[in-house]
Design brief:
Length: 108
């Protein structure tokens, strides 16, 4: 008897791209993952998971994209500029990590 392992497709439909924003603008980092059971999407910035639950400026959109409202950028405070990755998890399958996308905030 042979045990047939079925392969469940689990992949990114859309991965984030490098983006340029200006202070005060809104920016979307796109991400969408495909699987039979809906993946759980999380975002990392500079290697650290973002806690979007208690974040009033950053939110996860239904498709998995990250919306950053009113980008903050000053000489000593640059919380939005950096490197973003989308992380998709399906508990029975595992986790896939997107390419790294750089968000640059332009000065005046």
């Amino acid at each position: 008897e042979s045990l047939v392992r079925t392969f469940t497709p689990f992949y990114f439909l859309v991965e984030p791209l490098d983006a340029l924003s200006v202070r005060g603008a809104s920016v979307i980092m796109n991400c969408s993952a495909q699987c039979e059971s809906p993946p759980r999407i999380e975002w990392k910035k500079d290697g650290t998971f973002l806690n979007l639950v208690s974040d009033d400026r950053r939110q996860l959109l239904p498709d998995g994209s990250l919306l950053i409202n009113s980008v903050v950028h000053s000489k000593h405070n640059k919380p939005d500029e950096g490197y973003y990755q989308c992380v998709a998890t399906v508990d029975s399958l595992g986790t896939i990590v997107s390419r790294t996308a750089k968000l640059t905030v332009a000065g005046k």
